[in-house]
């Protein structure tokens, strides 16, 4: 798996956790997201960020 794919999977997991917790903030500013090329479409399901 490429670094971009790993980052994408990590972003999917972060979005799922944020949605479950009803988070009001979500940051992709850390090392595990550095190779992220695009955000997963699930991000549109988050409200109140």
Strand content range:
under 5%
Which stretches are poorly predicted, pLDDT < 50 over at least 5 residues? none
Sheet of most strands: none
Helix- and strand-based class? mainly alpha
Number of helices: 1
Describe the SSE topology.
Layout lengths: L2 H19 L28
Q: Would you give an account of this structure?
A:
- With 49 residues, this protein is mostly helical.
- It has one domain.
- It has one helix and no strands.
A few lines on this structure:
With 49 residues, this protein is mostly helical.
Provide the descriptors you would attach to this structure in a database record.
single chain, 49 residues, mainly alpha, 39% helix
């Amino acid at each position: 798996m490429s670094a971009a794919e790993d980052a994408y999977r990590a972003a999917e997991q972060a979005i799922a956790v944020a949605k479950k917790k009803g988070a009001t903030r979500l940051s992709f500013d850390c090392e595990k997201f550095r190779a992220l090329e695009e955000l997963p479409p699930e991000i549109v399901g988050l409200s109140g960020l």
